[in-house]
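Handout, section B. The chain below has 213 residues.
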Amino acid sequence: MISKRLKTIAKFLGDKKILADVGCDHGYLIIEGFLNYNLKKAYAIDNKEKPLENCINNISKYDFKDQVEFLLSDGLEKLTDYVDVIVFAGMGGQLIIDLIEKDFHKLNDARLIIQANRNIYDVRKYLTELGYLIYDEEIVQEDGKFYEIVVFEKTDEAVIYNQNELFFGPILLEKKDATLKKKLKKDLDVLENIPYKTKEIEEKINLVKENLW
């Protein structure tokens, strides 16, 4: 069964037709995209052979298998065709930034759907400075963990986000998202229970408190 995290990512595919799934793992996102959304073509990308084999085995059971190409690739390195939506999920924020930077010219005007396991602030800052708009966001809780999913769209308009928005997400803050509130309370509890607090920890505590409602 597909996870809540991947279901949420799939929802943001919207009406996009050609997906590059970087870090495709078992291929469940691609399967969801073909079964319940508008996908016509997908590129399953992983830099490890075993996950790619798992993905091939799972997708081979479906009629749309011939519409999926499998790439053993470091990010978008071996992608040569146009895509209109790219997913980077289940990896660290700095790795996502490195992969984007390495093949930035391949992004074109594709929607970017990002779920970073850490350092999402860095990803928001990096992409918005490159002219991306934060189009939508959602945070989900699953198996005791919180996952922030952020959707970026290229824009010609100048969009400036403040530090709070980059840390916690402008749309999540605007929506006063209940799951974000739970995450902030948990983060605050962890931070306040650190016995010897550095200046950096104190600043983080104040930042979380400022954004709790």
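Note. The chain has two domains: 4-159, 176-213. Compare this with the example in section A.
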